[in-house]
Amino acid sequence: MNSYQYLAKVYDQWEIMMGASFSMLMFPRLKEALEKINRSIRSMGDLACGTGTLAIAMAKTGVQVLGVDHSEGMLSQARAKAKKAGLSITFLQQDMRTFQLPEKVDLITSFYDSLNHLGTLEGLQQTFDAVANNLNPKGLFIFDVNNRNCFEKLWQGTSVFHHEEFTLILENTFNEKSLKAQSLTTLFHRRKEGIFFEKFTELCEERCYSDEEIYTALSSVGFQVLTKEDFNPFREITSIGPIKGFWVCEKGGP
Asked: Which residues belong to CATH 2.20.25.110 in the chain?
């Protein structure tokens, strides 16, 4: 699992530098998906909620939201943003493979390829099982995952992002045999004194999962896939084709 201990400090600014907040790109897609199946949501959990952007957007619509993330750095940012927005959102530091919400909810989301951070099929299976256990009967699980095209096109080479407060360097590799991807992240962040920069490094690892693997893992814990579509949320790189799968699933049984 990736901690994002240092990247959390600049995560929102970095997203904006790439064009837009991914969470806010997914917000209308999520609302549209709920409208298509004519489902109203009173409560939800946002799994791997990061800095809380989506959780805050949903809370503003009147939904009771719980946020879960493994990174305390991300959660610290999320709590500060929710407080600034005047919202009461509970953020929990838990492992997505074994998370437990205080109460069951109508919807669980997991966006920005968070599930790809699970390095094994066993971990993916454990997470789907935990999701099912935290949903109400007929509860919804809506998530995205990076597909192979994404890893082959975007997880190769080096990218550099410059900001007045930081420089971020991403060195990406994808192994087509193991289906594992790595991103060595180097962050030079301006210190409060304003003159010197501190250097931090983190290694982010992801795994590519096939649709068949995901279908099998979902069905084994009683999920029915309502819709699945491939998409590319970034207008700047539409030429490379779909890079993600968007899954809408319903929990079966009690």
From this structure: 151-207
CATH class of segment(s) 7-146+209-251:
alpha beta
Q: pTM of this prediction?
A: 0.91
Q: How far apart are CA 9 and CA 73, in angstroms?
A: 7
Tokens of 40: 């109203």
DSSP 124-182: HHHHHHHHHHTEEEEEEEEEEEE-HHHHHHHSSEEEEEEETTEEEEEEEEEETTTTEEE
Nearest Cα to Cα of residue 249 among 218, 216, 217? 218
DSSP tag of 79: H
Q: Tell the CATH superfamily of the 151-207 domain.
A: S-adenosyl-L-methionine-dependent methyltransferases (2.20.25.110)
| 28-58 residue pLDDT tens | 999 999 999 999 999 999 999 999 999 999 9
